[in-house]
Design goal:
InterPro entries: ATP-dep_Glu-Cys_Ligase-2 (IPR051680), CP_ATPgrasp_2 (IPR025841), UCP005522 (IPR016450). The structure is a single chain. It is built from 14 helices and 26 strands. It is α+β, with helices and mostly antiparallel strands. It has a domain of 61 residues: Dna Ligase, domain 1 (2-Layer Sandwich). The strands form nine sheets. The chain has a four-stranded parallel β-sheet with strand order 10-9-14-15, with helices on one face. A four-stranded antiparallel β-sheet has the order 16-19-17-18, with helices on one face. Strand 11 and strand 12 form a beta hairpin. Helix 3 crosses helix 12. The relative contact order is 0.18. The mean pLDDT is 92.
Length: 477
């Protein structure tokens, strides 16, 4: 299969700098792909897809008429990021996570950033992710956001932008590890020759982070992963990470709180739990504090957390930083806490609660991407250039009814990467979700989840909206 005739379009292409001209870091990959016998790459693509089926690597789409369990589509042509580009990404993400952790600690304590007029109080207090029940809590070691998945995009110039932050329970890292395993088998020769930085040590790094977060150091900490159960869309990932890190996978019925300590039920009696990597949304975590009807949470767990007897990773309340209106203030947050300019810029953002911004957005809906402040997964979103008049009218009504709940951004010309379409390659838009671990020092995993909008022309990369993924190769210097 050749790249002859591959159309770059007006976009930044991740593999080619000009028609037929590979980027420095992709020359080996292009040469290898084009040297394969006719049909061989397609055969390897099919083998990779079969491996995904065999491994049971799935996600759940709720309410889908064709069934809920889906294999995450995978494209065998990797996305390559050169070392210098990655250096800049790493610097910018470390800066962002340090600042956001300081922001979270401030919001739940003295709220200096509000008192100094940087962010309006109303914006914080109306954010769905802001939890008054977390006021005054001091998480172990002062760390709120232990695991973050920050979504990045590139425009037509190749410049990286932060699209959104994910500080609650970011998912997808299991696909990063599975994709890498597949690629080592699919293109082993070029993988070895390309000097790709490893991601396989993520489970060990995650485990070390969780162990360091234990409130007490007098014994070997007990760490567990709390899952909502088998019907959760990311259950595969929960069980995968528990297996890879060697920690217990538990549900709420496996845990009990006594005297503000959390214990795990075992065949030998109760065992004290020190750290809980929770993959359960805040609202369902503790029915005594949040939703009383929750059958997934652990009664009293927030009391144990407040008392400093257990670490919850990520800490409840981090979702305030995921609010898309708060996102628009992150450059100011970085400036306020660190005295620095944001190294990776945000996508330019209009806040519909501001009268002037709202008027501009309503007049230009056909060129804008409109997002609900607390939605994810590609839901609650209008892609103006691909929308109908009826859809734009519907969103105009939503914006006018609840202006606080909407932001708008210009429709970027997202970068593209080649994917296999039948017997040839076509460009598809991509984003990137690197994973960042914060355990005192901040570590950025070299790579991340490259998501691909497999529908031709689509800008929506989410798996629930028909997206797929690629392995992400970050090259060494």
């Amino acid at each position: 299969m050749k790249f002859t005739g591959y159309d770059l379009g007006p976009f930044h292409d991740e593999m080619f700098s000009a028609p037929g001209v590979p980027r420095d870091g992709t020359k080996l990959l292009v040469d290898k792909i084009e040297s394969l016998p006719e049909g061989e790459l397609f055969r390897r693509q099919q083998q990779a897809e079969q491996a995904l089926y065999d491994l049971g690597i799935t996600f759940t789409v709720y309410g889908h008429e064709q069934g809920t369990e889906k294999i995450f589509p995978f494209d065998v042509v990797p996305r390559v990021i050169e070392a210098n580009d990655w250096d800049n990404v790493e610097i910018g993400l470390k800066q962002r996570i340090f600042a956001l952790n300081l922001f979270l600690d401030d919001i739940y304590h003295n709220q200096k950033i509000i008192k100094d007029g940087v962010i309006p109080r109303e914006i914080i207090e109306t954010a769905e992710g802001f939890l008054p029940a977390c006021m005054g809590i001091n998480p172990p070691h002062g760390i709120w956001c232990h695991v973050t998945g920050t979504d990045l995009v590139r425009d037509e110039t190749g410049t990286f932008f932060v699209l959104e932050d994910n500080l609650r329970c970011p998912s997808g890292v299991s696909y990063v590890l599975a994709n890498r395993s597949l690629m080592k088998r699919t293109l082993p020769e070029v993988f070895a020759a390309s000097r790709v930085r490893p991601v396989d040590d993520y489970p060990a790094k995650l485990l070390n982070l969780l162990l360091r977060m234990a409130p007490r150091s007098d014994s070997q900490p007990c760490v567990v992963l709390l899952t909502p159960g088998i019907y959760n869309s990311a259950y595969f990932e929960h069980s995968f990470l528990a297996l890879q890190t060697g920690i217990e996978l538990v549900q709420n019925q496996d845990l009990v709180v006594e005297n503000n300590f959390v214990y795990m039920r075992t065949t030998k009696g109760l065992k004290k739990v020190d750290v809980i990597y929770r993959r359960l949304n805040d609202d369902y975590l503790d029915p005594l504090v949040f939703r009383p009807e929750s059958l997934l949470g652990v009664p009293g767990i927030m009391g144990a957390f407040r008392a400093g007897n257990v670490c919850l990773a990520n800490a409840p309340g981090t979702g305030v930083a995921d609010d898309k209106v708060v996102y628009a203030y992150v450059p100011e947050i970085i400036r306020y806490y660190l005295g620095e300019e944001a190294f990776i810029p945000n996508v330019p953002t209009y806040l519909c609660w501001r009268k002037e911004d709202r008027a501009f957005v309503l007049d230009n809906l056909e060129t804008m991407v409109v997002k609900a402040a607390n939605e994810s997964g590609g839901y609650g979103m209008l892609v103006g250039p691909a929308s109908t008049k009826a859809e734009r009218e519907d969103f105009a009504g939503r914006i006018k009814a609840r202006p606080r709940n909407y932001i708008a951004q210009p429709a970027l010309m997202l970068s593209r990467a080649p994917v296999i379409v039948g017997d040839h390659f076509e460009g598809r838009h991509v984003d990137l979700r690197p994973y960042i671990l914060h355990g005192g020092d901040v570590q950025v995993i070299p790579g991340g989840l490259t998501r691909v909008a497999l529908k031709k022309g689509s800008l929506v990369v989410n798996s629930s909206q028909g997206g797929g993924s690629k392995d992400t190769w970050v090259l060494k210097h």
